[in-house]
Amino acid sequence: MLTLPLEAIDKQEALRYMGCPAEPDEALRTVVDTCEQQLRRTVQPRVVYRVLPLCREAGTLSAGGMQLTGEDIARHLAECDRMLLMAATLSGQADQLIHRAGISDMTRSLAMDALASAGIEQVCNRAEECFREQLPDTYFTWRFSPGYGDLPLSLQPEILRLLDAEKRLGLTVTAEHILIPRKSVTAIIGLADHPLKKGARGCATCRMRETCMFRKGGTHC
Amino acid sequence: MLSSLFPHRKFIRLDGGMGSMLQKGGMPVGALPEVYNITEPERIIAAQKQFVAVGSDIIYANTFGANRHKMAKSGYSVQELISAGIACARKACAGTDTKVALDIGPIGQLLEPLGTLTFEEAYDIFREEVLAGQDADLIVIETMTDLYETKAALLAAKENSDKPVICTMTFEPNLRTFTGCTVASAAMTLEGLGADAVGVNCSLGPDELFPIVEEMAKWTTLPLVVKPNAGLPDPVTGEYLVDPAEFAQAVVKFAQLGVTVYGGCCGTTPEHIKAAYDLLEEAEIPRRENIEIPAAVCSASEVVLIDQPRIIGERINPTGKKRFKAALQANDMDYILDQAVQQVDAGADLLDVNVGMPGIDEKGMMIRTVKALQSIGGTPLQLDSTIPAVMEAALRVYNGKPIVNSVNGEEASLQNILPLVKKYGAAVVGLTLDENGIPKKAADRFAIAKRILDRATALGIPKRDVYIDCLTLTASAEQDGARETLEALHRVKTELGLKTVLGVSNISFGLPNREAVTRTFLTMALENGLDLPIINPNIASMAEAVRAFRLLRGFDVNCAAFVEAYANMPTATAAATPAAAAKPAAEKAPETLDLPYAMSHGLKNEGAKITAQLLETTDAMEVVNEILIPALDSAGKLFEQGKIFLPQLIQTASVAQAAFEVIKTTLIERNAAPVSRGEIVLATVKGDIHDIGKNIVRVLLENYGYTVLDLGRDVPCQLVADTAKEHGVKLVGLSALMTTTLGAMEETIQLVKQSCPDCKIVVGGAVLTADYAEKIGADFYAKDAMETVAVAKEVVG
């Protein structure tokens, strides 16, 4: 398990998540600043991971006994012989901060939520740097999560079991495949001993492409 | 009770890691080990026999995950899996004195407030396990990270069996669990609830666990348990790296802390365990005697030591507060939570919670309130009700060690309340009154205090958990009263050595300049030994008096807390100009700072202040219709045009919300009901827990004068339909953020249409489109909160 500090959060990114692409006014800037400090003071990001060999049999792809269904994950891992399975969480304290902020001030709640979303993404990036140090001479794909393309969200319980994430992270999943604590991520990174072609990344494989607010606004996440 | 199972033992030997043994034996990671109890019992027995062979006194049956949630897809019932698990352990122990423990681990789903599993459901799941495990000799609750879940399990064990119960939780190096539970909270709460031994297991190796157990030893008189992993696992391979000799060397160090129950968790083999037993046999284990536990109460995440005056906030109480009563009648939890947040921000260390008023279901309200308060933070609570059934309900769902307010010298009160205090491990406020009322003289109040103390200690309630309230009488009615109260307080403190509590606000009732009288009395009481003043911390001078007292008495080391609280306080001359926090206001001269300006600049406090001033000269509805709504409309237009963005729109709405709160309170105080444009039901559908979008919609709808019945998130489909029907609403708003929960949205729509055919439904949420909304039977799709307001205007008017 990695225990990572929550480093300074990219506030511009958080503002974008909040639906505020322009320069914020003084009042909003203050809200974002205080929320960022509070979040960083309070949460304890944690990451667990495991490297699993990929198994290709009779046209199916699996790892550690977990079936990886769908065309998109197959394409993602096409050149790889093993994968790194990871789960990361900001911890339940983040959920509590978001909730509490909403009691007296929706702006704070929205800011806290957006900052936490940006924060968990940063934690994943930081974790990936650690993996690269741990696994020298290995080539990585980008992080592919359940819900991307046609990789089903129903994989979440299996992923948590393989990582023993409930015990090691306190991470659980609801019957509807929502991770709790909320600000958590599971992902698959393909690994290989040789350089990899850059796979398609972005809106083309995204489930949200029809409804995404960024796409509606002509940008992307 | 644990030691009676093992008389004359220097220490009790627990087993080692079963999971890792089974995995070594070929069980795949991710398999359900409990199923092996039935399909391959010989494997389980063989593994356990190895621990019996090295001398374990207790074998944990292979039932750790045998709950109905984790075993849902196993094909076996909880009863089958647990019976088989205990039978395996019995076979492994055959011919020895080794005892078998029913092993209970976490459910695997997070409890409320973070998760969706309720406390009551968790209790029921554990109850099923306890009942299925009647053949065991004792019960072990282990690897817990959530104190609430541990409490549910321990209550289930205590209420459905008479076996000894060992509780161990899993902590991180920061002395907290994943969910933020402190070591002290765990020890205090679990001892209070009747555990027979407490300790730690898993997550870390023995070296890393040492400071955790060292801390725990300060907070409990119970036998201590330690069951560490074989060090930390290798991050890539997952292998545990500490060998048996190293493990034993590290474990034996716990002897100096007086730990008397030892075992191993993940990665510990029979060799590890044997090596540890051998060294412990040689070690000296000092008896843990005469341990002075500090007086304290706690939530899961916060411990409040009663080692200096601590403020109990009194505002969550409807007595004499029309606005609060209206909130209770309307089940307006946000109002109550806001009262909590304000008091904590103003310096409350604890919060008194009283929701009793005629005509409401006080028990149901108390449960909802305690749970809601627990969802926003860790300030410990003082549960306040005169009805024993309400008190018990509150004690049950409280997560931590609360204060019970109150017991008094009346026989009925002593008989009803003290057993509850004992059972749930709370602290208790004893009021110095009895069948004859409040004695006039200090000596008589002292005598009642003594009687309450004697009765409490006779039941096994520790003396440190009895706090005495010598009762404040109104000075204008009985001028000698203050002196008697202070004298009684002083005697209780010095002669009985008890902590004291006092509601001080009553002292000034009926007098002008109440604040001066109350504050002075508070200071006098503090000097006479008051530990827990019950005050309104929102009155600045009250919190100031307590903070200053702590400073002058040397509790506030280096004046740090005082400076932190007041460093940014404007000086007398600076106070005339706007404070630093309200900087944007300074751009505009104060006389032109109006409500629309405050709204567009997110100036909440100013907005509330201006509204209060306006209400002195202007009719409330005029303020709403002529000022608030037009300002909101123009913000809405700017938002639609892309000239301002969501955060600015919400800031404007937040100021409007603050203004509305002022209007509402004023109207209620004048006995005029606020005018509503109509009721709208809002909910995030079953299974979905995203609620920020829905909350934004609610705030905007409320701004426009609609009464929103917000059912929250993860709302059962039928409840939405029932509420819509009961209130005869014209519009229901539903939110879903996940493709997996759209089914629940469709079902909810159908149910609403069945029970109220005329009711319209508006839906929104990230995964929805106008087409899809139409397909599942919704009447409207709203892409954002402003569109929902437009729909409301069209449907409700």
TrEMBL record, chain A:
This is Vitamin B12 dependent methionine synthase, activation domain protein. One of its GO terms (molecular function) is methionine synthase activity. It comes from the Bacteria. SUPFAM superfamilies: Methionine synthase activation domain-like. InterPro entries: S-AdoMet-dep_Met_synth_prd, VitB12-dep_Met_synth_activ_sf. Gene3D superfamilies: 3.40.109.40.
Automatic annotation (TrEMBL), chain B:
Catalyzes the transfer of a methyl group from methyl-cobalamin to homocysteine, yielding enzyme-bound cob(I)alamin and methionine. Subsequently, remethylates the cofactor using methyltetrahydrofolate. This is Methionine synthase. Residues 309-553 form the Pterin-binding domain. Coiled coil: none annotated. Residues 1-280 form the Hcy-binding domain. Pathway: Amino-acid biosynthesis; L-methionine biosynthesis via de novo pathway; L-methionine from L-homocysteine (MetH route): step 1/1. GO terms for biological process: homocysteine metabolic process; methylation; tetrahydrofolate metabolic process.
